[in-house]
Amino acid sequence: MRQGKGSDMVDVIMVGTVALDTVKTPFGEAVETLGGSAVYASVAASLFARVGLVGVVGRDFPEKHLAFLRSKDVDLAGLEVVDGDTFRWKGYYEYDMNQAHTLDTRLNVLAQFNPRLPQEYKNCKYVFLANTDPEIQLNVYKQMHKPKLVMLDTMNYWIENKKDALARMIEKADVLLTNDAEARQFFGTPNLVKSGRAFLNMGPKAVIIKKGEHGALLFTDGQCFSAPAYPLEDLVDPTGAGDSFAGGFIGWLAKTDDLSPRNMRKAIIFGSAIASYNAEAFSLNKLQSITRDDVFNRYMMFQDIASF
Amino acid sequence: MRQGKGSDMVDVIMVGTVALDTVKTPFGEAVETLGGSAVYASVAASLFARVGLVGVVGRDFPEKHLAFLRSKDVDLAGLEVVDGDTFRWKGYYEYDMNQAHTLDTRLNVLAQFNPRLPQEYKNCKYVFLANTDPEIQLNVYKQMHKPKLVMLDTMNYWIENKKDALARMIEKADVLLTNDAEARQFFGTPNLVKSGRAFLNMGPKAVIIKKGEHGALLFTDGQCFSAPAYPLEDLVDPTGAGDSFAGGFIGWLAKTDDLSPRNMRKAIIFGSAIASYNAEAFSLNKLQSITRDDVFNRYMMFQDIASF
Fold first, then answer.
1. What pLDDT, in 10s, does the model give residues B82-128?
2. Of B75, B102, B125, B222, whose CB has the highest number of CB atoms within 10 Å?
3. pLDDT in tens, B203-239
């Protein structure tokens, strides 16, 4: 059963997880709240563009979350509801908030999920393949008809266990998203500049290395851009930071349909602005209430932080 | 015995160590080369301003190093040559280059050193108190007559062992320089923004948190500036990075005599530019040959790296 009316009018599709998260941080706890890579990315991108979400949930998935996504004009034609329970993640962050510690992962309906894109999504120009098995990412990629921009995320697990498939997927991606640890791990070098350039040589036109509290680096042909992080004094929950960043980034590109390095720099700041809001509250509690004006305001604060 | 003719014409004085370093990195080794905080800071600042160096060496200190410092117009009226051997540091960097590992420290003549400023330095407006015992820093501070800007560096050892004296010195400093680990340690918080603001509340008008490969943060009243790091692919030897940064920073301020937050931002980029050159070769091998034009060129590359 599909949970949307379908549309050939989406600007960008997000393929990833829809989850019920239980998260504990030094500032509190959230139990069975809305989460998942496709959700964070979709809601972030919805500030700029018309989004289609591709994922799976079980019969237990609360209707209120579907209603919330629809209220953000997120198209749900690609969200399957199947027998079984929704994917659940339970974890905590210690005081330094830099790393999520997993207590329990229940794949549930995600275990058998192999996304099939709705027909009307196959011509979409922008697609985000959130972190999952690279063979599944390749399978989704094959269903697309000449997308203009494919953005890829991954994680250390796939570098360790499916590096060949991941390499094949990286060759096809236009924008590769990694964090600093993954970038060092992939090429066995501590130098992020070397890693960034080596990834570019594999095929992508742009490589983004996320550095958490230290911002992000963007490598494009012959250029390097260093984006600052927002100086957040009250970080409450970092869950979804990477995916809301990704959503803001690709949402801005889809809205402007401009893939110049200059516009990618702007997209990174928009992604960072949205991710910084996201970290100010649990789950999507902050993201659900911010407006495009809020994002533009924070964009201007980034300009102030970075100017000299 | 003083090693200089003395001058009331220096713009900035650097109080710190003069060393003979033996350093090993994955890219080679340098044995008994010129080093020390006052040396790196002085040579870096000499690109912009007239520098006086305050420190001590033993009778074994090679004349060629004195000649080199004089060739950079570094005034040596404050450099004492005393009986005994020069301070020596021996260490290595592992592949990630983030942390120096000490193999051997021989304080030698440094053990008894308590700097006495030449009379003609006491009215100097700009002074850098490089890392040492905060009680010695306080002693030097008391010898100055109303300096316009006192910049202070320290290290984890003094936070652990002389925190009260260090706090008294921080209260008197205009610019505090720390690295990220020290900033977190001092206030027992992982959040650098919180630490930066808490340091400001102790007295300094500006706090700089150095983050190595991730750049630096500058906190001034109500403002935060995030400076990028230069994307260095071939880092050869990070020794002296912090002190050449400090020298470039205070050298620019002394040259321009402008302490506005805007000009401090520029000074941070000039310091970062010089520090990035310094890391491209062992000892001062690169610093000795760069010109002010080189520094301006790299400043412009920082503008490109940071702009959006």
1. 999 999 999 999 888 878 899 999 999 999 999 999 999 999 999 99
2. B75
3. 999 999 999 999 999 999 989 999 999 999 889 999 9
Distance (Å, whole) CA B36 – CA B17? 5
Nearest to B16 by CA among B46, B44, B41, B34: B41
Q: Is A13 on the interface with B (CB under 8 A)?
A: no
Task: Determine, for residues B226 and A225 on separate chains, whether the beta-carbon distance falls below 8 Å.
Answer: no
Q: DSSP state, B17?
A: -
The answer to whether the CB atoms of B191 and A235 lie below 8 A apart is yes
Q: In Å, how far from its chain's centre is CA B77?
A: 19
ipTM: 0.90
Say if CB B139 and CB B116 are below 8 A apart: no
List, as one string, the DSSP characters of B46-103. TTTS-EEEEEEEETTS-HHHHHHHHHTTEEEEEEEEESSPPEEEEEEE-TT-SSEEEE
CA A212, A217, A220 angle in degrees (round to 5)?
150
CA distances from B245 to A124, B96, B284 (A): 49, 20, 13
End-to-end CA distance of chain A: 54
Mutating which of A265, A307, A308 best tests the B interface, going by the most B Cβ atoms within 10 A? A308
DSSP for residue B289: T
Residues B182, B192: Cα–Cα separation, whole Å: 10
**B126 near B147, Cβ under 8 Å?**
yes
Which residue is it, tokens 């330094």? A96
